[in-house]
Amino acid sequence: MSKKEVKFNCKIVKCMYNSEDYKIYATDVDKKEFPNIKHNKYDNVTIYGNVHNLVVSQSYEITAVEQLDKYGFGYDIVNVRMDKPKNEEEVYMFLREILTENQAGVLWQHYPDIIDIVLRGEDDTVDLDKLKGIGEKTFETIKTKIIENYCIYDLVIEFGGILTMSMLKKLYDEFKSIPKMKQELRKQPYKSLTKISGVGFIKADSILLELQRLGKINFPFELKSSAQRCAACMEYYLEENQKEGNTKMDLRDLRKQVVRLVPACSSHYVECLKDPDIYYNKDTFEVSLKSTHDTETAIAAVLFVANLKPKIWDFDWKSYQTSGEYHLTDEQTSALECICNNNIMILNGFAGSGKSATSAMIIKMLEDNNISYTLMAPTGRAAKVLSDYTGKPAATIHRGLGYMPKNRWGYDSECKLPFDVVLVDEFSMTDIFLFLHLCDAIDFSRTKLIVVGDSAQLPSVGPGNLLYDMINSFIIPTVTLNQIFRYAEGGLMKVATDVRNMKPYLYDLSNGMVKFGKDYTFINANNEQAVKCAIGLYQKLLSQYVPEDILVLSAFNKGDCGTIAINNAIQKIANPNYGSEKCIKSGDTTYYVGDIVIQIKNNYEAEVDMGDMNIENASQNDEPSIKNTFIPNGMLGKIIDIYDEIIPYTNEHKTGAIIDFDGVRVKYEKSEMSMLLLGYAISIHKSQGGSAKVTITLTPSCHAYMMNSNLLYVALTRTKEKCFHIGDKDTVNRSIKKKENFKRNTFLLDILKKLKIKLNKKESK
């Protein structure tokens, strides 16, 4: 039997706990007016729930359900409502609760109707130059408070709780007014929820059908059989296809998926192919998102044109074959010749083939001839490796192009990179969207592009298969390094090469283990035994190495042999602060100072920790100088502090962590911690581009389905000094005989081949 809702008025006394999705407040409730509301031992009433930030000293009308737990009676909030101020005096009182007295006075003096201005969506008429002490950030806080208190919660109730506060907040941020938001939600329901609120199609479809069934929104058409629903479903499957790395799919396959999921509206399929967001070719039966097709078409045009009129350098490239500590092979030396004669080139090489030495010698040749250059890589870890082996600064592609929040780029088609050469390492990890940004920023009449990669490694997580397509188009001059150094030593490099060549190498394991050279050890252990062995080995290694130098690799994140379970076990032995009261919890993980973490999604607006120049020390009349930076997916960091602070003016508690990502300190609030996982153990996919002094790779039989030659090759080649491989011998030998199919369904290769045919025909005339 559900508990009865109660309604009462209260005044907020103090925020006791504050996270993105849960807050606890101590409130003052009049006992005479509401005699049935139970007070706690501190003589106030506890309210809690998933609500916006309530203003201390402000009065609210609360609808809640009474609860009794170990802390006593409290009230689980169903709805919060604050009456709109009835006169200018009440407006001033509201402003005083969220601003300093000076700021409230200045704003009230110039805009006494500020609440109505914001609610009408006319806040762009407010002249901040008139408001001393109120900058853009403070004004955004004011707007948020007004919108949350007077708009969003009423809408949650209006739509029966089917649309959440976060969805409605995103819609309001886009459309700037309640009437416009309702209008667009009614006219373009699927685009509104999926494109703006970021809700997946299946969830959005369920929400919208329920809104129509309950009559919460009077849509102008029947959603279930509508063309809009069909188009949204098509885009959903095309996006899912892209998540697998493809950029196109077959028209007939897409239709089958649509008929299966939304049969009531599938009759609109042909009609919806004409949607401006969709590209299709009725001759080739290809279909994709138009933006994706346009991206690959633009890349193909750049790649094709760039080398038609190459800028030739008359350098003595041959002399560099013998000018380093080690002599370059003829293969390696040909890479220096190639960049002298072409605007774009590919340096392709397997592990141990000397890509690093070749790249370093190219850089020496550039420096000797006063050629300016910049070094980039797709991820922070890959950029660090590039910097380590060249001894030169290297940046992520995002940072190299001057990425700024809200999708702004310092270098683009209007402002080109000011270098003679751009070198991009670990190129196979680059997806088409990022590469187009790089292409836009290069003026090929001045700048040459060198892409360095290993065609045996895994392709990008994002859509496209750039390295594979570019090499196999035979349009881009390519130097492939085949000679493997140190193979004859019989150690890790021999094992990695055999794995790449699908050659089994594990035979005699009578002692349960075997060593190859000085740097590779295989230990025969399976499933739970393998995990226990890895954790025991990790603990022994801590006597010689710090946690930052040891990396555990597994094919899966979940399961008993996955990275999550391994991380939880290693955290206890690797971090001396484990169990400390100074901690922060996110999901099922508790983080402590000293923990190694990994970023699991791109953060385009990470707040740089300003140290002493933070909000608490800013004067009341100053806007704090907050800067942002880009933290890429897959970057490893270390938690160096955990904070619990009170924000001025609002008295809100904020908790979070200060994280060092390769020398850049960023400040993550608790809500942003969901973008992290513990990073003592990471997936093999996430490890690509990085390296560690010691690696421990797990390949138990429960991972047999996932494991293949390419994945194991990537894992083994992350090692700088020692590799410990713990797994099932038979699983390893079988996996080596499997190759991942690098062929993805993309446009680029076909477009480049067609362009080459056209060029050959033109030249033959």
TrEMBL record:
<dbReference type="Pfam" id="PF14490">
    <property type="entry name" value="HHH_RecD2"/>
</dbReference>
<dbReference type="GO" id="GO:0006281">
    <property type="term" value="P:DNA repair"/>
</dbReference>
<dbReference type="GO" id="GO:0009338">
    <property type="term" value="C:exodeoxyribonuclease V complex"/>
</dbReference>
<protein>
    <submittedName>
        <fullName>AAA family ATPase</fullName>
    </submittedName>
</protein>
<feature type="domain" description="Helix-hairpin-helix DNA-binding motif class 1">
    <location>
        <begin position="126"/>
        <end position="145"/>
    </location>
</feature>
<dbReference type="InterPro" id="IPR029493">
    <property type="entry name" value="RecD2-like_HHH"/>
</dbReference>
<dbReference type="Pfam" id="PF13604">
    <property type="entry name" value="AAA_30"/>
</dbReference>
<dbReference type="GO" id="GO:0006310">
    <property type="term" value="P:DNA recombination"/>
</dbReference>
<keyword id="KW-0067">ATP-binding</keyword>
<dbReference type="InterPro" id="IPR027417">
    <property type="entry name" value="P-loop_NTPase"/>
</dbReference>
<dbReference type="InterPro" id="IPR027785">
    <property type="entry name" value="UvrD-like_helicase_C"/>
</dbReference>
<dbReference type="InterPro" id="IPR050534">
    <property type="entry name" value="Coronavir_polyprotein_1ab"/>
</dbReference>
<feature type="domain" description="Helix-hairpin-helix DNA-binding motif class 1">
    <location>
        <begin position="191"/>
        <end position="210"/>
    </location>
</feature>
<dbReference type="GO" id="GO:0003677">
    <property type="term" value="F:DNA binding"/>
</dbReference>
<dbReference type="GO" id="GO:0005524">
    <property type="term" value="F:ATP binding"/>
</dbReference>
<dbReference type="GO" id="GO:0017116">
    <property type="term" value="F:single-stranded DNA helicase activity"/>
</dbReference>
<dbReference type="InterPro" id="IPR003583">
    <property type="entry name" value="Hlx-hairpin-Hlx_DNA-bd_motif"/>
</dbReference>
<dbReference type="Pfam" id="PF13538">
    <property type="entry name" value="UvrD_C_2"/>
</dbReference>
<keyword id="KW-0547">Nucleotide-binding</keyword>
